[in-house]
Known about the structure:
Two copies of one chain form a homodimer.
Chain A: E1 2-9, E2 12-19, E3 22-26, E4 28-30, H1 43-48, E5 54-56, H2 58-63, H3 67-72, H4 76-80, E6 86-88, H5 92-96, E7 102-104, E8 109-112, E9 119-122, H6 124-134, E10 138-140, H7 152-174, E11 182-187, H8 193-206, E12 210-213, H9 222-229, H10 232-235, E13 242-244, H11 250-258, E14 263-265, H12 268-274, E15 277-280, E16 283-286, H13 306-310, H14 313-321, H15 326-351, H16 355-364
Parallel strand pairs in A: 4-14, 5-6, 6-10, 10-11, 11-12, 12-13, 13-14
Antiparallel strand pairs in A: 1-2, 2-3, 7-8, 8-9, 15-16
Helix pairs in contact in A: 6-7, 7-8, 11-16, 12-15, 14-15, 15-16
Amino acid sequence: MRFRLLATDGRARLGLLETPRGVIRTPAFMPVGTAATVKAMMPEAVRASGAEVLLANTYHLMLRPGAERVARLGGLHRFMGWPHPILTDSGGFQVMSLGRLATVTEAGVAFRSHLDGSRHLLTPERSIAIQRLLGADIVMAFDECTRHPATHAEAARSMRLSMRWAERSRAAFLEGGPQGAALFGIQQGALFEDLRRESAERLVAIGFEGYAIGGLAVGEGQQAMFEVLDYAPAQLPPDRPRYLMGVGKPADLIGAVLSGVDMFDCVLPTRSGRTAQAFVAGGTLNLRNARFAEDGAPLEEGCPCPTCARFSRAYLHHLFRAGEILGPMLLTTHNLWHYQQLMAGLRAAIAEGRAHAFARARLAA
Amino acid sequence: MRFRLLATDGRARLGLLETPRGVIRTPAFMPVGTAATVKAMMPEAVRASGAEVLLANTYHLMLRPGAERVARLGGLHRFMGWPHPILTDSGGFQVMSLGRLATVTEAGVAFRSHLDGSRHLLTPERSIAIQRLLGADIVMAFDECTRHPATHAEAARSMRLSMRWAERSRAAFLEGGPQGAALFGIQQGALFEDLRRESAERLVAIGFEGYAIGGLAVGEGQQAMFEVLDYAPAQLPPDRPRYLMGVGKPADLIGAVLSGVDMFDCVLPTRSGRTAQAFVAGGTLNLRNARFAEDGAPLEEGCPCPTCARFSRAYLHHLFRAGEILGPMLLTTHNLWHYQQLMAGLRAAIAEGRAHAFARARLAA
Lengths: 365, 365
């Protein structure tokens, strides 16, 4: 994997992440395909929206259908009909979201499946093995996402555990050779600049193909997140991609790109697509609202997506009111296009040295 | 609307139904788009399966979003993004399926909405008006679908009511001019040949652009249905299309085509697509079955559909187990292709004078 920095505009970066399965233009937004499907979307429609890489979830896939099964079926790309790059998370974030069902030790995380209560142990070594079985192009180090709020002592203890796991993740990844895949380390340290710096230095000492900023978008609020993003990206190597995990709303993405972040993933456009929430310039629309019942306009004037090209707000309103599957299908399509159009707009603006003007115009809309 | 009979093979017929919105090759299968959507399908994917005409349901659309609202939004074709022909049913079958909620009088059927309990009256005149508001290319006469089982006296009373309603439907349809649409009459008479004949004669005396065979596939069983189909099509004019309503399984379609039927509609391929049932040569597969968990084969070997081209039974099994929307999307796609491939096979066989051999081979598979 090679990362080429094509242009910068302030701290914003335009890049190309070259992988054996295809090139990813950055800043990039990765739709989430939790259970080996971007919910309610045909894979070719995800690609048509502009997505060049997907995120899939280790936790969900290890439980169902199982990583070994996916491997026997030829790997995740073939299984889900997505021949382009896939990034898998480490499973750490999700097993720790299980709360009482999970126990963290130095070895890893013991947990019970939310599906059938069965016991499992996820360690750095097992997480990497699962991601290799799935066939991920970008593998994530196993880490603990520090809970919010955390004291300095709690955040330090948690971050240092993640750094020891990062070393074990790297060792497990290198065993057997890189096989064309890349491993990203994950910076932790909560909202503390000194801990973020320590984390970055330890990760760089280990050495990764890319670096993620973890532990944000966990309830700290946009202002606190932006405060961390004011220094965290610059703590990471400039010649490697930077990935802000689990973010976010369009305004979050814009702010993070201006801070030097290159990659994002979030369930928001897809989840909103299933709950009748449309992303449009300047905000969101709830399509269940009665005011759309006779609104013959498209969701968003000028939007090039297949939904806006052919269907009215009134039709989408009808589909959601009637509980029709086509409602989530059409609205997820639009939301993914909206996100990808935003990323394309940011990339063009960075290339032309007008990223801040673009951001101001978008945030004022 | 013009119907051209291109070839016959025994009683089986190959034809072209020319409408202002496009040509329909017969024998034709019409997917059902109850609430202005073929469930879980993008309209272009329905078209790509080979469908040249859809059925939409007057009962559902009059209640939600309402026929006047659809008309204000530019009609059903524009509303649902389907520029090709649409046939609407009369609503009669479905209001009578409401049972206790519906009361039949000479005027029509008074009923309460299954959605909100509101009171409505559906008459021949109102049914035709609704279908015109929707903008149907093929409008169906308002009729009573005779309940099964029915005595000769019950069937005669019911059929004669439908024939009086057929006259009122025709008068209502002609008021305001045909506007490029066609009106089909519906033969009733339950399982009684003399009543079917009387019904056919009364319909022909009124005069329709096409004729449907109603009151079958209501619990009488395939043998009883085929007995009626042994004489009923021949009671209808040979120069007009014949439409067997609500049928059916692939074997039903094959038998009915050999009996001289030209058009069909049924929810089976779409409904089965949402309940994990796949139509394949020789029967059906239940994709939830554990035996498919590691089955890397496509649903049906040699099937040209987009699902079989890219996805395995194991993937479909996973999607249904995980409750993913993509399961119904992919399986409905396959099932609609399966049905359209069957119709294409029947048309080719009729053209080449081998309809019975084709039928024998398909039924033996």
